Amino acid sequence: MDFEQRLAEALAALDARGCLRTLPKEEDSRGLVNLSSNDYLGLLEDVSLREAFYASLSGADRQLSAASSRLLTGNTPAAEALEADLAAAYGAESALVFGSGYHANTGILPALAGPRTLVLADRLSHASMIDGIRASGCKFFRYRHNDLAHARQLLERMAADFDDVVVMTESVFSMDGDRTDLAQFVALKRDFPNVVLYLDEAHGVGVFGETGLGCAHAAGLHRDIDLLVGTLGKALCSTGAYLICSRVVRDTLVNRMRPFIFTTALPPVNLAWTRHVLHALPDMGERRARLRSMGQRLSEAIRAKGIDCPSDSQIVPYVIGSATAAAEAAARFRKAGFHVLPIRPPTVPEGTARLRFSLTASLREDDFARLLEEVAR
What we know:
By secondary structure, this protein is an alpha/beta fold. 41% of the residues lie in helices and 15% in strands. It has a seven-stranded mixed β-sheet with strand order 2-8-7-6-5-3-4, sandwiched between helices. A three-stranded antiparallel β-sheet has the order 9-12-11. The protein has a two-stranded parallel ribbon with strand order 1-10. α8 (215-218) links the parallel β6 (195-200) and β7 (227-231). α3 packs parallel to α11 and α12 (285-303) runs parallel beside α14. The N and C termini lie far apart (48 Å).
């Protein structure tokens, strides 16, 4: 077989397993209740917030492109203003903004780690975090999911053999919706002086905390986290990501982080929009409370069917098993008016294909009631 024949055969094998991915079209979800986005606070449909932003735009913030990397001519006032606001919000020395969460997680560790760095990562850490570990070339182990006692055992056995041990996890896990015990996570650093804590708050930012700055900030533990990554493209309804860190870490990344150095900076208009949303976050407590309530009620409805549901957030999985059965279940929900997509291997382990309900604060109460009814059926 030639090159393209081999690719076609591999695609056919995926299709036979019910795991072939295709790009959906906008009209595929038109008229349906969208339960597959990351628009947790419902900002995509918030016309008043958007119009207030447009009215405030002026000067360089209207630019649609930075047209350069940050280290050339793309270090715009909008980028510096957003980073200053983020650092101030967290009470940190520094912040650094990136083009995406994937850029952040694949670039931070390779820039900071050395040959005497060990990495311990939660077994269900996001693919971008695993790619960053692999790119770093560090020795690494995965501890059992959310089992920080297991992480501690690994530290007791190996920490003394390395200069630094980076322990990585997520505050809210993207496929199960469960959360890390951040008090236990921070205790690792207190008990092992060479531990560096790396926390991905992609699904926590905007949703948790009195001011929406995530789980660590809500718990008052954000100052104990060495590398706190947040996303701008989910609850904040923008694009990009950021790191809250020390000044020396920021300066190191500016000099060494390849996805930061060798990419065009974010457009000023997007950075200005992110600042606009960031300033509005503290006033969105009612949305966060409603989101938490819906997450709890939906999780309880799934558990009532005898199905394990570990969710403690706005992400609620309905684990079905086979990829084909998950696709069939998604089709049934579609007929009932809900756009919820099947999550299949390799995104999740074999035998754990699921529907992943991604809730939004803009979900109407009557639609949510229908969703609970459909789950019960």
